[in-house]
Amino acid sequence: MQVSLFAPAPPIDFDSVFLPAGLSGNGGGFPPSTTTAAEMPRPARPESGGPVRGSAGAGRRRRAEEMEVKDANAALLSNFEVFQLLTDLKQQRKDSGKHKQSSGQQNLNTIMYETLKYISKTPCRFQSPEIVRDFLIAMKGHKLTKAEKLQLLNHRPMTAVEIQLMVEESEERLTEEQIESLLQTVSSILPGNPEEELQRQATMAAEEEGDPE
Amino acid sequence: MFVLVEMMDTVRIPPWQFEMKLNDSIAEELNKKLANKVVYNVGLCICLYDITKLEDSYIFPGDGASHTKVHFRYVVFHPFLDEILIGEIKGCSQDGVHVSLGFFDDIVIPPESLQQPAKFDEAEQVWVWEYETEEGAHDLYMDTGEEIRFRIVDENFVDTSPTGPSSTEASTSGATEEIQKKEAPYTLVVTMYNSYSTIGVHGILKRHCLF
Which of B23-37, B45-59, B100-114 has the weakest average pLDDT? Predict the structure, then answer.
């Protein structure tokens, strides 16, 4: 990181923060400040023939660039990844101790809290990077698009209807057995709510005991 | 639901923050600027993912702060078309059912997209799905607080940047207040309608299985 201090220049034009000629040309070649302001070499004016300001030299003049979005869709994130990121961030901020000036950080606090609250209600909180990796490997054979795999990962469907909604044209692309195997893979690899699982197993066991009678 | 957006911006660090590590102060500034805000045509920004590149920092005449060009990636809420999401019903009105995700509230289900037949109950201000089966009609109420699944159909971005003073003389009529209509910068239009309306769950229609 290099912090350059520039010599006094013509009045600052806050609309366009420009880099005086010294940077583009000589780079850091300003003499030590023993010279007075009057003698200080001034950035070139049109008559002097140096790098030109004004319409002709518009290319040299860089506006303070506004925020730019380079790629609005660089990657898709699963709920689990966002959950991990936010919990780590929360931990970091808690550890750092000093209370950040609330005025500036209030927005971040709000959005973090709400998003964590939302994601904590989904099955993503039981996932781990290994589980996600195993799931994606298992999904390779089924020929699903990235978006469909992401939805399966985020929602953990338990019924065929849910799969039919998430997978486009599932009637043409998947047979009944494939849907069944998909459901199997999903419920075996992706963990659900442990308490619910126990409850379900308990009720299923109770039903089986009831049947023989 | 969430996407990673690559962005580039010039971050201004005031001199009193020079003692902090540059990465930390830049992360803080970026979060201060973008968290919980909607970027036009991009989505609702959640938090900073990482900083990919830091260019040189400059100090400009007349301003003691350093300016650094930063390339970074931000986590943004931007569901894709046809994505299925689960939300909570916040309320009903004539325009439809309003659903919220907690961190994002401007989701609306227009009446056409509710399962038909649906009617609006004026007395209770709630939409009702009249589901006909052999046993008779079941009325399923879209109550507040109910979990609901929906599919994204459309999104609307509105540029809410401040406009200049209007050309009409607003200053002369001091009594009349211009009530600024607050428009949501990012709204989602969603649907519950789909062809799979037969839910074979042993005759008992679980409300949270509404699609």
Answer: B100-114
Give the residue among A90, B40, A213, A43 at the shortest CA–CA distance from B7: B40
**A10 to chain B: nearest residue by CA?**
B61
Structural domains in chain B plus CATH codes: 2-77 (3.30.1490.120), 83-159+181-209 (2.40.50.140)
**Residue A85: helix, strand or coil by DSSP?**
helix
Please state which CATH number belongs to domain A128-207: 1.20.1250.40
User: What is the pTM (predicted TM-score) of this model?
Assistant: 0.73
Q: Do B84 and A17 touch (CB under 8 A)?
A: no
B-chain residue closest to A83, CA distance: B2
Q: A72 and B103 in contact by Cβ < 8 A?
A: no
| Prediction ipTM score | 0.79
Spans of all domains in chain A: 128-207
Q: Name the minimum distance, in Å, from the CA of B174 to any CA of chain A.
A: 33
